[in-house]
Amino acid sequence: MKRPRPPSPPSISAAAKPPLSPPPTPILKQKLQRTGAPKWLPLKLTQTELTLPLTFPTGQTFRWKQTGPVQYSGSIGPHLVSLRQRPGDETVSYCLHRSATSPNAAELALLDFLNAEISLAELWSDFEMKDPRFGEVARHLRGARVLRQDPLECLIQFLCSSNNNIARITKMVDFVSSLGLYLGEVEGFEFHQFPSLERLSRVSEDELRKAGFGYSRAKYITGTVSALQSKPGGGDEWLLSLRKLDLQDAIAALCTLPGVGPKVAACIALFSLDQHSAIPVDTHVWQIATRYLVPDLAGAKLTLKLCSRVAEAFVSKYGEYAGWAQTLLFIAELPAQKALLQSSQSIQLVKSAEKKK
């Protein structure tokens, strides 16, 4: 699933604009602090703990843009950040382009977003003991991390992603993002802080349809925003509270929102709610499962009941961080990574043959 470089955030026709007030205002822009000339600093993660092309363009988030050969840029709250990796440099570097708080707060927010407290080396070692095949894949695809996104941001993105293609998902997410506070530009891409729930509540269903969301998706997004606003304590706090629930309770709670089914709920749970054993099951994951975990189900039609069986099989094999294992195995099936694996395996076969001579 190759991620194309999307166009700039779509504009709204003059006829559709009146219901919305302009997202950025001069007053809000003055509150942002420019950090001066770009300054790259080492991040506390090596490339074995974070490999950018195995983390960002893999379907976890649709808001980060590729802004260099191995460089990705995006916003984390009020911070506009770029991450990059250079050949021969073992560490990952970051650049803070703009922030509404301090550089230290921005770095902490970035590390939190990257789930930096979780050691991939320890996880991969544990998974390899449980499944030798995982070790073979992980050897060539090190550094594929699961992100810890803001729950509202993640929820809206995956409402856009359901039954959709990458180009259209990106266009929708760019439109929603453009409603937030403007943070700046990196390599021709404009970046915004994700809009607040209150800001989203001022977007009408009709306006979303005119922006290309379609009837059902526009209805789901406005309905979900309305449902969140009605939650005691506020929708943001309600979403954050799901981090403290058991996985099944968190999934059930998410599925009460318009347009959220089990697969979308599992994506939100895994990528924003600390539910590390969540398994989003789609046709790709189904194929992986029937090849390696539940071969007796090969040829069967994927149903809601079988989705649960697949999730159980992953958790049984890999344990409480099964979602991380599933993420790597999913990434290994993407065309670019599949080619890399096949190339690596061919090299190994040649080396083995040469040793036997």
TrEMBL record:
<keyword id="KW-0326">Glycosidase</keyword>
<keyword id="KW-0511">Multifunctional enzyme</keyword>
<dbReference type="Pfam" id="PF00730">
    <property type="entry name" value="HhH-GPD"/>
</dbReference>
<keyword id="KW-0539">Nucleus</keyword>
<keyword id="KW-0234">DNA repair</keyword>
<keyword id="KW-0456">Lyase</keyword>
<dbReference type="GO" id="GO:0003684">
    <property type="term" value="F:damaged DNA binding"/>
</dbReference>
<dbReference type="InterPro" id="IPR012904">
    <property type="entry name" value="OGG_N"/>
</dbReference>
<feature type="domain" description="HhH-GPD">
    <location>
        <begin position="160"/>
        <end position="334"/>
    </location>
</feature>
<dbReference type="GO" id="GO:0034039">
    <property type="term" value="F:8-oxo-7,8-dihydroguanine DNA N-glycosylase activity"/>
</dbReference>
<dbReference type="InterPro" id="IPR011257">
    <property type="entry name" value="DNA_glycosylase"/>
</dbReference>
<feature type="region of interest" description="Disordered">
    <location>
        <begin position="1"/>
        <end position="25"/>
    </location>
</feature>
<dbReference type="InterPro" id="IPR052054">
    <property type="entry name" value="Oxidative_DNA_repair_enzyme"/>
</dbReference>
<dbReference type="GO" id="GO:0005634">
    <property type="term" value="C:nucleus"/>
</dbReference>
<dbReference type="InterPro" id="IPR003265">
    <property type="entry name" value="HhH-GPD_domain"/>
</dbReference>
<dbReference type="GO" id="GO:0006285">
    <property type="term" value="P:base-excision repair, AP site formation"/>
</dbReference>
<keyword id="KW-0378">Hydrolase</keyword>
<comment type="similarity">
    <text>Belongs to the type-1 OGG1 family.</text>
</comment>
<keyword id="KW-0227">DNA damage</keyword>
<feature type="compositionally biased region" description="Pro residues">
    <location>
        <begin position="1"/>
        <end position="10"/>
    </location>
</feature>
<protein>
    <recommendedName>
        <fullName>DNA-(apurinic or apyrimidinic site) lyase</fullName>
        <ecNumber>4.2.99.18</ecNumber>
    </recommendedName>
</protein>
<dbReference type="GO" id="GO:0140078">
    <property type="term" value="F:class I DNA-(apurinic or apyrimidinic site) endonuclease activity"/>
</dbReference>
<dbReference type="InterPro" id="IPR023170">
    <property type="entry name" value="HhH_base_excis_C"/>
</dbReference>
<dbReference type="GO" id="GO:0006289">
    <property type="term" value="P:nucleotide-excision repair"/>
</dbReference>
<dbReference type="Pfam" id="PF07934">
    <property type="entry name" value="OGG_N"/>
</dbReference>
